[in-house]
Amino acid sequence: MSEIKKMDEFHIFSSAYVRAAVNRSQYVNDGKKEIAFIGRSNVGKSSLINSLCGRKKLAFVSREPGKTRTINYYAIQSRRMENEEEVRQDWYLVDLPGYGFAKTSQQNKDSWSAFIADYLEHSPSLQMIGLLIDLRHPGLPIDMKAYEWLRSIAPSLQIIGTKGDKLKRNELVKNKKLLEKYFPGDFPPIAYSALTGEGREELLKVIEGKICD
Ligand SMILES: Nc1nc2c(ncn2[C@@H]2O[C@H](COP(=O)(O)OP(=O)(O)O)[C@@H](O)[C@H]2O)c(=O)[nH]1
Ligand SMILES: [Mg+2]
C-alpha cells in the first residue's frame, strides 16, 4: 500500500498518557469515546497499545507481571479522509489492570472483578473492550471465565490473540481457529503481533467502526 493511501485511511497520529485512575471519581468521563483493553497480566497489553499508537514507550512494558491496579487513560487523536476532507477524532484508549498472576488469592480476584465492573458500569462512553489472549495458550480456564463474564457486561467484545510472531504459521492458523471455537462472538478474533505489526490494520478497522460511527 502506498504511503499516500495510508494517510487517507483511519490512523492514529497523536497519543498521550492522561491519568491513572484508582477509583470512580478519577474516571475521565468527558463524553469522548473509549476503547479499553484487558487480559491476563503479561499478555501483551502495553505492547499492543504502543504498537497501535506507533510509539515505543507510551505504555510501560515489563517482563514482570505488574501488581499495580490502575486504569490508565491515553488521549488519542486519529484522522481519516471523508469525501476528500480530513476528519479528526478525539477519544481514549484505556488500559485496564491484568488478571491472574500466580499468587492471586480469591479475595484479590473478587476485588479485581469489582474494580472492573465499576469501570464498566460508570463509563457510558465505552464502545468496546478488546480481550487479549496469548495465541500460544488458547482456551485457558482463567481467560474463558473472564470472557464469559465480560461478554455479559461489556458493550462489545473483540478477541485479540497476542504474540502471533512466537508461533509457526501452521500453529498460528490452528490456534486462531481454537480462539474462534472457545470465544465465539459477533466478530472473529484478530491475530496480533506487536513485533511485526500483524493484525494492526485489522484492529484499527474495528476501532474505526466504533469511533467514527
Ligand atoms: N515476541 C513478542 N513479545 C511480546 C509481544 N507483545 C508483548 N510481548 C512481550 O511480552 C511481555 C509482556 O508485555 P506487556 O506489553 O508488558 O504485557 P502486559 O502486562 O499485558 O501489559 C514483554 O516482555 C513484551 O516484550 C509480541 O507481540 N511479540
Ligand atoms: Mg501492561
Automatic annotation (TrEMBL):
The UniProt keyword set, sorted, is: Cell cycle, Cell division, GTP-binding, Magnesium, Metal-binding, Nucleotide-binding, Septation
According to its UniProt entry, the function of this protein is described as:
Necessary for normal cell division and for the maintenance of normal septation.
Fetch the Gene3D superfamilies from UniProt.
P-loop containing nucleotide triphosphate hydrolases
GO terms under biological process: division septum assembly
Q: Which cofactor does it need?
A: Mg(2+)
* UniProt family annotation: Belongs to the TRAFAC class TrmE-Era-EngA-EngB-Septin-like GTPase superfamily. EngB GTPase family.
Q: Where is the EngB-type G domain?
A: 31-213
Q: Lineage of this protein's species?
A: Bacteria, Bacillati, Bacillota, Negativicutes, Veillonellales
**Which GO MF terms does the UniProt record name?**
GTP binding; metal ion binding
The question of whether Metal-binding is a record keyword is answered with yes
Question: Which organism does this record belong to?
Answer: Dialister succinatiphilus YIT 11850
- UniProt protein name: Probable GTP-binding protein EngB
